[in-house]
Fold these 4 entries.
Entry 1:
Amino acid sequence: MSCSSNSVDDRNCRFLLDISVNETINLNFPEFSQLKSINVPVHIPLIGGKDGIIVNNTGSRYVAFDATDPNHIPTDCSFLSINGIIAKCNCEDGNEYSLLDGIPVGNTGTTCALRGYIAQRNGDDLSIFN
């Protein structure tokens, strides 16, 4: 069982909507099987969610994050792309975040960490929720 807790102060991080997340994926399905490997993140679209979630197996736990840059009002460019274990914003500033803990990387002046969700494995199923 794993719960992501972001250590960056997020009192001013109010751009993301509070949506309910309750997804279960089967790690044996081809589109999710790479999550059995360490640090091979996967983007999962959500029904009703803007950009979905990004899930990663860190080796010691699973982590899940909202796939929208929390330092922007959600727009077409605030979707996060996966580049190894880094999530990168597609807006002009190119904010980057670690997919190990959701914390901003580099000295970009970002104040908000990625919004984390609980990721809990039960056999071949991985439940992601808040």
Note: Residues 119 and 128 are 5 Å apart (CA to CA).
Entry 2:
Amino acid sequence: MTAPAAARRGHLVDLRPLRESPAFARMWAGAAITGIGSQMTIVAVGLDIYDRTASTLAVSLVAAFALGPMIIFGLYGGALADRFDRRRVALIAAIAAWGSTAAIAVYSWLGVPDIWPLYAFITVNSVAAVMVQIARQAMIPRLVRIELLPAAGALGGISAGVQLTVGPALAGLAVAYLGFSVTYTVDVVLFLAAFYGLYTLPAMIPDGERRRADLRSIVEGWRFLRVAPNIRASFVLDIVAMTFGNPRVLFPAIGALLIGGGAVTVGILSSAGAVGMLVLGLLSGRVAAVRAHGKGMVIAVAAYGASILLFGLLLLVTAVLPIDVGTDISEANIPALIVASVLLALSGAADSVSMIYRTTMIQAAVPDVMRGRLQGLFTVVVNGGPRVGDLYVGALSLTLLLWFPPLLGGLIIIVVCAVFLRVYRSLRDYDALDPQP
């Protein structure tokens, strides 16, 4: 199951990708710093909209407005990454993302009462961020050796863990004590790190015959999935997990009504999953050495579903045995907040394991000239799934049963994983030493 050389390094994360590839190290650091600010804005926008409307459904509409453009430009971004210099594609998209972030900050400082500009700006920001992510991920196999791709994926998990831990926590504190305008402005400043990480990269022209970035090119990416059952299965599993197992739009209501604590509780819950991702990344030595990526991914997704199901049960118990709570953190139900944070941390750790295996499978098994389009499809799945999940949770929240969406969603994820583990033999037999799409 493990590569002997990797096993000898123990449980700690393998840092060789950072040491061997300074270009990868710069891109990795730039993405981590920029991501902290981006997560601050994501959390702040949710709090801002809830503060204006007192509606979880209104918060979930951020997903509705962004979903369509994100899918279109995510797919087209993959085609662009397979046609042009991937470094240049990433830089242009980063400029658009930074501009939309600055627009959100200006909107907040001006005190515009209308809410629709906030939806518009965050949609542009989401679309541009997706295109940056596509180009960045497609470049990684050109920056590190193939045998170090799992280690690079684990480092990506650490980066995501830092972003999702520090960003939401800072957002909760900043919104509570400094206001929305300052929180958005911090993101504008931190985003500058992305330009350093991308600008210093070498040119990244795709290998092989490059197609025009048009509809035919995008369709070729879809057709590749017909002969790539392992990649196709990984996409479906991620869609299921992110659609039915992402309770983030419930956090403002949980902080206001169920557990209490207001914005600080929202920050804690939003960052809890990332704590698990960060810890798992730091202790990923043995995880990155596993060769059975397909089986490991399915088991990890099932563990994710179990954690979300238990989170729903906790909310049910909290609702049945109510305790008077307020919007100040001193008035929160602290025991429930601690247990909820632990369960979300476990879900983050499981998600990180599945991400390491899924990302490595795409980067190792897909040809370079097709990698941008497949990464585009994958990025649409990764970013679109949670937004569909936001709508799923937002719609079910109209029942006023905050525990119901995660409870049902976790059960659905577990059942789907059991079916996949039984039906997909090629996924069960996947070997990292002989990667097959």
Note: The mean pLDDT is 83.
Entry 3:
Amino acid sequence: MLTEINYLAVLTATVAAFVASSAYYAVLGTQGGETRPWQIAAELVRSATLSLVLAGLVTHFDLRFGPALVLALVLWAGFPAVLLSGSMLWEKVAWRIAAGHAGDWLLKLLLLTTIVSLWR
């Protein structure tokens, strides 16, 4: 399965997710001060991990674009949405903060899945 993954698509998706997420938070006006180089590196690793996982799932289940997007939505509802709602419930995170992060996760999942499912 790992040999069937298009690693150029994974790399492209990683960079696209990083740029899209940065733009998303810039539009929201929630970027908190100066970004340090280690934060950029950590975010690229996070995006690469997510991109690789999605590429693996799309490849393993031989998903085309439509079903892959459904997978992205299901993953979003099953993980980020559940985790972020839990942070609101148990850690008193403001709903606007959680909603902002939920939107970023949805954007990333849809973008990454689009790239890795179309570019196989």
Note: The chain has five helices and no strands.
Entry 4:
Amino acid sequence: MIGGIARALRPTAPLFLWGAHFGLIYAIHSFACERGFVEARMLGMPFVQALVAGVTVLALLGLALLAWAPLARMGLPEVDGGEEEPRFRLWLLFAACCAAALTILFQAAPAFVLPAC
């Protein structure tokens, strides 16, 4: 039963990753503004930009790993006989990965254009 629930919820994993990235970006900004780390530098970049870049790269790598399974299994034969339709779930997972990647890039972009506080 748990395996079926996990298979059914797998296409929503990119959306959870996007939400975690969204929360981390806001946490980084609020922490830096509250503690006065806006002027601090890390790896030659301002503190906030370096952390946002790191979190964004990690989120995009996670999405790439999630999207790898649908791309690798696209050539499988179709399932008949009233069984579950894995192609739709694979397509939905891949589409969710693409949508989450775009939103992650869009929500990280202001950190490099606007001041942190």
Note: Residues 2-113 form one domain.
